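Troubleshooting log. The previous structure file for this entry was overwritten by mistake, so regenerating from the original sequence record. Sequence copied from the archived sheet and checked twice against the printout by T.R.
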Amino acid sequence: MIALTVAGRRRQKPELFPYKWINQQILQDISKTEILYDSPLDTRKQTKAKMSKIRKLFSFSQTAKRAEFLQVIAISMGLWLLAAYVDEVFLAPNLCLINENWECYLPGQVRDGLTLDMLMFAFILVLLIAVIIRRLNSHKRSPLYTMMAVPLICLLIIFLYFPEMELATWQTIVSTLLFLPLLYWLLVGGKSAD
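Regenerated output below.
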């Protein structure tokens, strides 16, 4: 602020501290601080932004960058492994405690029926198909190319959840060869900015 003196000359308001670098540091610290208390409007905006990110995960119409695709793969694998661990360690041995008619299983035993990791696998499969289709959209490819992953997904389901069924070597080789072009398109940069 500038103030006028009696003689008509301008006089500047004295600084807070005599050294300019201290004033600059204070101003920088003030500008970096965040507001501790959010207004309800801010929290609504943040919630809306988080929900739009979750909605985008299950969207089939937009594009996905390679980093987003790899993040979804890593997170989904982690969730599936966590579900399998919880199912094997906590749920399977304690089934007979929940209901007397149910059997208790030791960890590692093959169980009949629906398990927690099967439910998580089904949930993750929808998520992965959505991100694969969005990744193909960024390559300007048809979403029907996702069908190239179906044989490999079927073999994976058989291998994981139906171990009594034997897989022929030629089935594994053919399904993997069908999946390779799709894997290439998923990992290489798209035609839009990646």
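The helical segments are 20-32, 40-57, 66-91, 95-98, 116-138, 150-161, 169-187. Archived copy saved in two places this time.
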